[in-house]
Amino acid sequence: MKRCDAVIEVHSEHKIKTSISPGIPNDEYLEWLYTTDTLIYTVHLSCSENFKPYPLEEIKRDLLGSISVMGREINNFSSSIDYALALGIYLGYEEIELYGMPMRTGEEYTHQRPGLAFWVGLAAGRGVNINMMYENDLFDSPLYAGDK
């Protein structure tokens, strides 16, 4: 079974080099990005055969074009997972599984949770089956006007 169709890297090389990420050292990650045979959708990186430009403008037009706030286009990409879900919807995936992003605590997640909920809802509304394969409380709100 194939475990990964593609990787989405939305950060610049500078951001990758200077950020602190748990697990794999940043230099090793960059080396992997530039040498892997895996397809990499990128927003800011280039210069590798396996890199493909992330179709941001096409996705915004096709998936967000009918939504505006006071006549302004929206940009609802608050985390890498938003980019991943949007790409899956855009490419016509029928099923998307999400792993390892509980987004339960932390200041970072405060502004990322609404984006995840938006893209999950948009995917479901377009008939994409979404399987969240981890414990999370994103959709555990009490029923509005419910008894409990």
TrEMBL record:
<protein>
    <submittedName>
        <fullName>Uncharacterized protein</fullName>
    </submittedName>
</protein>
